[in-house]
Amino acid sequence: MYTAQGTIEKSHLLKQHQPMVRRMALQMLARLPASVELDDLIQAGMIGLLDASTRYQDNRGAQFETFASQRIRGAMLDELRASDWGSRGLRQSARKVEQAIQALEHRLGRPATEGEIARELKMDLDDYQSLLQEIQGCQLLYVEDFAQDESDNSWLDRQAHNGNGRTGSDDPLAQLLEAGFRHELVDAIAALPERDQLLLNLYYEEELNLREIGAILEVTQSRVCQLHSQAISRLRAKLKDSL
Predict the structure, then answer these.
(1) DSSP 104-141
(2) Which residues pair with 214 in a beta bridge?
(3) What is the pLDDT of residues 121-132, one digit of tens each?
(4) Which of 12, 30, 49, 116 has CB atoms 3.0–4.6 Å from 112's, for a disulfide?
(5) Which of 116-120, 165-169, 220-224 has the least mean pLDDT?
(6) What is the enclosing helix (H) or strand (E) of 233?
(7) pLDDT digits over 57-106, tens only?
(8) What b/e string do you get for 37-46 counting C-beta neighbours within 10 Å, with b at 16 or more?
(9) What are the contacts of 103-107 at 24+ separation with CB within 8 A?
(10) Which band of pLDDT confidence, cut at 50, 70 and 90, is reported for residue 164?
(11) Which of 112, 22, 30 lies closest to 72, judged by CA?
(12) Looking at per-residue confidence, does 52 or 10 come out higher?
């Protein structure tokens, strides 16, 4: 539909391409952590679509769908990067803990104790536990885990593109066939110290809060935070190659 001036009507473009926004959001969501909400991606995508409808000039030869898909994808990626909870410095600290755990457990052939990890980091035990408190709630997956380098052609950019060449990322069967990471995660959890396994089960399976978990483990809530951070760091260390 066109206006009296011969330009495409903006409201028609928005309505016509809403399904494309949802489709792109579902494709992206299939390969992101469960904490990412579909509605947030769709909302960001609609902003990108609105921006595309404002900027598009149909006399330049490009199809609107091609032009809009780039704007939509870019808006979704911006939303993901903006919502990443941790500062770069905090993630660097978390990775130092992971590297120390990985190096220690490779040498020792067993899970490292807190004291051993603190010494590997050249820190006092109290300082190490304070660091665990700071990185409390750290994610198993970061957005930047999926970038191979500092270029714009990151994992997220490639997967968000409609023509990424992958087999139907929103197809449940395809997701099932690509579930190797899930099995690796299950194996990594099974290799954790028993207390870490119990804590993760209580937190993620039983959905208990920190106070309830502390009562079961007979520790304070702040101690539960520390133990949770350490358990996640152990998992990331074990899954380093997969990440």
Answers:
(1) HHHHHSSPPPHHHHHHHTT--HHHHHHHHHHTTT--SS
(2) none
(3) 999 999 999 999
(4) 116
(5) 165-169
(6) helix 221-238
(7) 764 556 888 889 989 999 998 888 776 655 667 778 888 999 999 999 99
(8) eeeebbebbb
(9) 105/237
(10) very low
(11) 22
(12) 52
Judged against a pLDDT cut of 80, whether residue 31 lies above it is answered with: no
Whether domain 10-82 has CATH 1.10.10.10: the reply is no
Give the pair of three-digit tokens for residue 180: 């190797």
For 2, the 3-state DSSP assignment is strand
**CATH code for the structural domain at 88-154+166-238:** 1.20.140
Token pair for 58: 């149909």
pLDDT at 216: 94
User: What DSSP assignment string belongs to 9-77?
Assistant: PHHHHHHHHHHHHHHHHHHHHTTS-TTS-HHHHHHHHHHHHHHHHHH--GGGS--HHHHHHHHHHHHHH
Q: Which long-range contacts (CB under 8 A, 24 or more apart) does 117-121 make?
A: 117/230, 121/96, 121/97
Burial class (CB in 10 A: 0-12, 13-18, 19+), 102: middle
Give the single-character DSSP code of 1: -
What tokens does 43 get? 């909302």
All structural domains of the chain with their residue ranges: 10-82, 88-154+166-238
Tokens of 230: 């350490």
Q: Decide: 148 and 240 in contact? Cβ < 8 Å.
A: no
Long-range contacts of the stretch 17-24 (C-beta < 8 A, 24+): 17/49, 17/64, 17/65, 17/68, 18/46, 18/49, 20/49, 20/65, 20/68, 20/69, 20/72, 21/45, 21/46, 21/48, 21/49, 21/72, 23/170, 24/69, 24/72, 24/73, 24/76, 24/160, 24/162
